[in-house]
Amino acid sequence: MIDRALTIAGIVVLLLAWAGPLPGMVAGSFAAHMTLHMVVVGIGVPLLAAGIGPLVAQRGWLGSQLALPIAVSVLDLVVVWGWHAPALHHASRSLPWALAIEQASFAIVSLLVWLVALGSTSQTRQSAALAGAMALFFTSMHMTLLGALIGLAPRSIYEHLHHAGGLPALVDQQLGGVIMLGIGGVIYLAGGLVLMARVLQRAPS
Known about the structure:
Elements: H1 4-19, H2 22-25, H3 30-58, H4 67-83, H5 86-94, H6 96-118, H7 125-152, H8 169-202
Helix pairs in contact: 1-3, 3-6, 3-8, 4-6, 4-7, 5-6, 6-7, 7-8
Organism: Devosia ginsengisoli
Pfam families: Caa3_CtaG
Keywords: Cell membrane, Membrane, Transmembrane, Transmembrane helix
């Protein structure tokens, strides 16, 4: 069973993100690059996962409720932190094909995390909520840490790429770190708290 409204909303957000002006701005602006990243993993993908999650759970594609949240969370960490290493980040902002691979990898690993969190049946709702909360809390922590490291860095990490009008390179980088903290960290944390509240409400007294 698919929630068509949420699925369509997620697809529309992703299409607007990738076909809109942001991809054309990432070469000169770290903040624009981060905004594109957060719109994809913090808005578009969660909506899509909420829409297709029931079908995925019903088909049993998320069978493991213990190892899976750990595996997808670690995979998400490797992909997100890896693409923010200077060499790969330079490639994603300089080469269109590298940006396409980066965005696709962000979307795929994020979709796995959100499907673990939101994909459940009536029989697995509580255990899936606990597994999902674990995955979202871990993702929130590593995104918050990465956003803080980028935003509080005393010098520009990606200065060689910077040519955005108006903003100094360090300010552009700080703005990108704030966007990661304010959108990515907060949305994943909020999702984890909602799922944990569901677990506690259903726990036997």
